[in-house]
Amino acid sequence: MTLRVAVVGATGNVGRELFNIMDERNFPATKVHAVASRRSLGKKCSYGDKTLLCEDLEQFDFSQVDLVLMSAGGSVSKEWSPKIAEAGAIVVDNSSAWRMDPDVPLIVPEVNGEAVLGYDKKRIIANPNCSTAQLVVALKPLHQAAGIKRVVVSTYQSVSGAGKAGMDELWVQTKGIFVNDQPTPTEFSHQIAFNVIPQIDVAMDDGFYKEEWKMRVETKKILDPEIELVATCVRVPVFVGHSEAVNVELEDPLSVEQAQELFREADGVVLIDNPQEDQFITPVDCVGEWASYVSRVRKDPTVENGLIFWNVSDNLRKGAALNAVQIGEELIKRGVLSAG
User: How do residues 276-319 score in pLDDT, each as one tens digit?
Assistant: First the structure.
């Protein structure tokens, strides 16, 4: 059997990371295509020891592939994902375009992998928001053991979440400040170098920004609709790696030691937690890694059955490319796709 894969948005940050992760995990594709807009036609994309030439999205024949990893933005996905599905491929989409569609499963394989079987309604599967993905991996073992009532989370999100342009802006502003150039924000609403910005995505009528809304509704869809969650999302001058300070209120008592043991055993979680020796994970430590890292687990004395922990992950990996590849692996594991 063959497994033919196309990466759409192949020249972007996440597209390049998709190729890296497929190679690292020996994803069993017999044929891989790099696809992007016409302006990227002929550009070279590295895939392991191979070099792929970028093909034109408008001209590509999607009937020749089985799986499409889509990372080209919401508007492109809205237009193209149904067309690709009609041609017979399954689409795993990294944008926010399909996440809240009731006919599209929203998947983090360590949390709700079985839900990929709902792909057949539209042949589209959605990847969650990067900050949600790493969070629900860490929340699942606590929810299974003691039931989560409420989550309060503050995020510290890297500029790579805004794409290459966001990374470039941080780099240019940082260099400029050292030679007394006045930073000029373009990708962000305020200066990002040596600053933090309590705004991600667009403002909503209730005073929240859309990133904060996404974390709430996506956690409910993936993990449990009964969980209440409120978020404050902040952009920080870090190139790669999202961090989260998470307060959890549980239904049942759970000691710090019990929570740590649950994290040690959980799929997709790595616990690094020794505050006496200053052992905890920072964004710099997690770059290039696959896990959702948990540190600083402690009791929250302000509520009954409360815990606090620190959660860090490479947002280009678990928050996007890795999760998409894992969804592909889940489709193979459950017999929807045949391994090449």
Answer: 999 999 999 999 999 999 999 999 999 999 999 999 999 999 98
The question of whether 54 is a catalytic residue gets the answer no
* pLDDT band of 1, cuts 50, 70, 90: low
Model pTM?
A: 0.93
Catalytic residue among 33, 45, 143, 242: 242
Distance CA 167, CA 176 (A): 14
Number of H helices, E strands in the chain: 9, 14
- Catalytic pick among 130, 143, 233, 286: 130
SS3 label, residue 101: coil
The burial of 138, by beta-carbon neighbours within 10 Å (0-12 exposed, 13-18 middle, 19 or more buried), is given as: buried
Q: Which domains does the chain have, with CATH numbers?
A: 4-128+320-333 (3.40.50.720), 131-314 (3.30.360.10)
Instruction: Examine the residue annotation and report whether 143 is marked as an active-site residue of this protein.
Output: no
Q: Dihedral sign for Cα 125, 122, 328, 240, please.
A: negative
